[in-house]
């Protein structure tokens, strides 16, 4: 949603309440992730003597699968931020996450929300941070069972090393 800031900029009001529903088709696509259809977004825009702030909160529920054991995962990404609103052209460094810029008297709320959501979205979706995953040899779910292939073949030192790289690579 784009919010018309003219009343705030002209001083007619010093606060605009934000409460709307975003269609999840507006959200970016993530592999194997299905978002709830509608996302409630709340917040406010305030003007305190020319110092304008945008604050937004939202909780976006999604369904996905665990990256390790493939079990269904239902989780929520929480959004809660405040940013300084600056006039068009004031923003020198457009990569600065603490600012949002007015364009033609309007502020793109969805864009600010989605940027923050991407930053907060897990790199790796897991059913549990300690999920043991599936045995790469026989496919058994190691959270609920065990198999001889793992205990025989993986040296404990190697297991530590594998776990280290697994935590380190961040995206698969
Ligand atoms: Zn899992
Ligand atoms: Zn196995």
Shape: elongated
Number of helices: 4
Helix content: 10-25%
- Care to count the β-strands? 8
Contiguous runs where pLDDT drops below 50 for at least 5 residues: none
Description:
With 172 residues, this protein is α+β, with helices and mostly antiparallel strands. The protein folds into two domains: 2-120, no CATH class; 132-172, no CATH class. The protein has four helices and eight strands. It has helices at 6-9, 109-120, 148-153, 156-169; strands spanning 2-4, 15-23, 34-35, 38-48, 51-65, 72-86, 99-101, 106-108. Strands 2, 3, 4, 5, 6 and 7 form a six-stranded mixed sheet that branches. Strand 4 and strand 5 form a beta hairpin. The longest helix is centred in the last third of the chain and has 14 residues, at 156-169. The protein is elongated and about 75 Å long. It binds zinc ion (2 copies). Residues 135, 137-138, 140, 147, 149-150 line the site of one zinc ion (ZN). Residues 66, 68-69, 71, 126-127, 131 line the site of one zinc ion (ZN).
């Amino acid at each position: 949603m784009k919010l018309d800031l003219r009343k705030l900029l002209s001083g007619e009001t010093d606060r605009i309440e934000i409460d709307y529903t975003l269609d999840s088709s507006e959200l970016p696509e993530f592999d194997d992730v299905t978002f709830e259809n509608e996302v409630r977004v709340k917040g406010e825009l305030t003007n305190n003597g020319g110092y304008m702030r945008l604050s937004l909160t939202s909780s976006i529920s999604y369904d996905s699968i665990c990256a390790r054991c493939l079990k269904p995962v239902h989780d929520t990404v929480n959004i809660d931020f405040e940013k300084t609103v600056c006039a068009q052209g004031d923003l020198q460094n457009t990569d600065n996450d603490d600012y949002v810029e007015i364009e033609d008297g309007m502020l793109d709320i969805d864009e600010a929300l989605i940027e923050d959501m991407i930053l907060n979205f897990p790199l790796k979706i897991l059913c549990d941070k300690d999920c043991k995953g599936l045995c790469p040899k026989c496919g058994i779910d190691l959270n609920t069972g065990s198999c001889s292939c793992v205990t025989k073949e993986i040296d404990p030192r190697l297991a530590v090393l594998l776990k280290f790289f697994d935590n380190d690579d961040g995206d698969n």
